[in-house]
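Give me the 3D structure for Glycerol-1-phosphate dehydrogenase [NAD(P)+].
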Amino acid sequence: MFDKSTWIRLPRNVVVGHDVRSEVVDVVDDLHLQGRPLFVTSPTPREVAADPIAADFDAAGIDPAIVTIEQATFDAVERVIEVAEAEGVSYLIGIGGGKAIDIAKLASHHLGMGFCSVPTAASHDGIVSNRGSVPDGDSRHSVAAEPPLAVVADTGILADAPWDLTTAGCADIISNYTAVMDWRLAQRLKDVEYSEYAAALSEMTAEILVDNADLIRPGLEESAWVVTKALMSSGVAMSIAGSSRPASGAEHLFSHQLDRLAPGAALHGHQVGVGSIMTAYLHGGDRGIWRDIRDALASIDAPTTADELGIDEATVIESLTTCHEIRDRYTILGDGMNEEAAREVATKTGVI
Ligand SMILES: [Zn+2]
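Predicted structure for Glycerol-1-phosphate dehydrogenase [NAD(P)+] (352 residues):
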């Protein structure tokens, strides 16, 4: 008896390229979104993107409400919900880096409204995925939400973003290699649901990015193009899988634990990149692909050591030995590494 079913939720309009910022009004119109939007943004993205887009809406006879958030917190989500209700808006547009988009995603989910994503930095795959992540006390919570109805990624704006954010986005994609290894392992050992399509897409995305690493240089719109398309494709893999598995394995657990142990020390993508070097070693030993991952990260200027992350040895070891506890997700870390093993993998891979 065949009784499987799946529900794949994808953005309907994905618009990427030069000066597409000016097409947000058309994108919204194409989606038949009626009424007033609420723009959720943060200070710098407001200047470079939200204000000019607001002017386009004004010109089209639509008066957007705007809320500027400073920090990604649950309080900020609450505030956005209050403003949305007070202003009588009917959909949300997140305009910014990860923060503004995550907040808009979670608030719109709560409000039962649609939302669009206008990323101003190609820093992680959250710009298109259906997961929102917000710090909660001393940890980060990844919450199921809905994927954006549309993504409008202006390569001119993205190319002007701080270079670190772009290299973090690249590292987040390179980590797909180990995320997929963990997923396959979990399928074999724990019968976790697995999608061959999603896994293949996720790996191929990482491969294309690594093959194009030469094109990825500061200030180039072409780089923003390559990275953004890879982030989209990673997000699509997650949508097909119906989970973050294709792009999030033990290297993400490691990074989430670093967020708790050393908040704000390094960017998400940079942390998962370093995590990925070590978990690749755990999967394949010395003959595995850990060197390829390290070299790919180095070639795009992403950190490959604890030092470059600005995180000390003890914290790396603590994270490796405890991060399996933060989430019920089976990975190569199994039921946890002991300290000696953690020190060995971190030393052998040159992370510490
Ligand atoms: Zn990530």
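The mean pLDDT is 94. Let me know if you want a second pass.
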